[in-house]
Amino acid sequence: MKPFCLEVRGDYACFTRPEMKVERVSYDLITPSAARAVFEAILWKPGIRWRMRRIEVLAPLRWISVRRNEVGAVASTRNALTAMNAGRGALALYVEDERQQRAGLFLRDVAYRLWADLEMVSDEARANPGKYLAMFSRRAEAGQCVNQPYLGCREFAARFRLVPIEQDGSGGWRAAPGEPAALENWSAGNDDLGWMLYDLDFSAWPTPQPQYFRAVVKSGVLDLTHVEVRQ
Question: How far is it, in rounded angstroms, from Cα 187 to Cα 28?
Fold first, then answer.
C-alpha cells in the first residue's frame, strides 16, 4: 500500500527525555510516537492504525534554553471522587499557590518529513480501505485536522502539509522532485542518538510500559522499518 508523507515544521519543539525528572530536556529528534500523533491528529478511527516508517530531518539541529512558569501539582483524584459522590466539593487548583519556575532545553526551527503506513485493523476498514485513504488525503491536502498537531508539548503547534511522492525504481518511495532533501550533516556528525523512546505498550493497562530503541540517523534519515524495541 502506498505510504503517506507529511512535512512538519514548528518554531519550537520538546520531545522530553523521560530520565529528566524535573526540568524538561528534549531529544535531538522527534520520537516515533510524537510523529505518529501528528498523523492521528489529522485522522484517527478505531479501525485504523498508523505505523511510522521513516523520519527525515530537513533543518539543522538548534537549541534554545527557556525558563518558564509551570504548575507543580494536579487536581486530587480523591477530591474529585468525593465531589462526584456528594454532588459538591472543592476542586479548585490555585496557580498562585502551585507555581514553579523551571528551565527547559528545547529545539527550535524544526522541520521533518514523516513517512507512515495506514494499516486497517478492523473488518470494516479492511473491507473498504479506499474510504480511509481518501479521507486522510482530503484532510491533509486541505490542512484540516481533528485537533491541532503539536511537537512534543501542546504549546508547540506544528504546521503540516501533504508531500507528493513517487516510486524510486527499487520498490520504495521518495519525495517528488522539487522537495527539499534530507540534511546529511544535520547534527554535526553526532548521528548515534542512543536509546530513544519508541512508544508505550498498553497491553499491561493500567500501567503502560515504555518501549525504547537504538536511534541511529544515517544521512539525515531515521529508518523505523526494522526497529528492535526494549522495555
Answer: 8
Query: For cell 538548534, what's the residue?
Result: 62
* Dihedral pair phi/psi, residue 11, rounded to 5°: -70, -35
Q: What is the pLDDT of residue 73?
A: 82
SS3 23: coil
In this structure, what DSSP letter does residue 219 have?
T
More confident residue, 224 or 73: 224
Closest C-alpha among 113, 115, 135, 143 to residue 45: 135
User: For the chain, which domains are there?
Assistant: 4-69+101-223 (3.30.70.2660)
Q: Position of cell 525558563?
A: 67
Q: Is 37 helix (H, G, I), strand (E, B) or coil?
A: helix
Closest CA to 48 of 104, 131, 109: 131
**Residue corresponding to grid cell 528545547:** 106
Phi/psi at 17 (5° precision): -75, 125
- Give the β-pairing of 4-13 and 99-120: antiparallel
SS3 breakdown of the chain: % helix, strand, coil, rounded to 5? 20, 40, 40
CB atoms near residue 59 (< 10 Å):
16
109 close to 11: Cβ distance less than 8 angstroms: yes
CB 34 within 8 A of CB 152: yes
**Which of 83-97, 125-139, 174-188 reaches the highest mean pLDDT?**
125-139
| Nearest of 109, 116, 114, 115 to residue 186 by alpha carbon | 109
3-state secondary structure of 191: coil
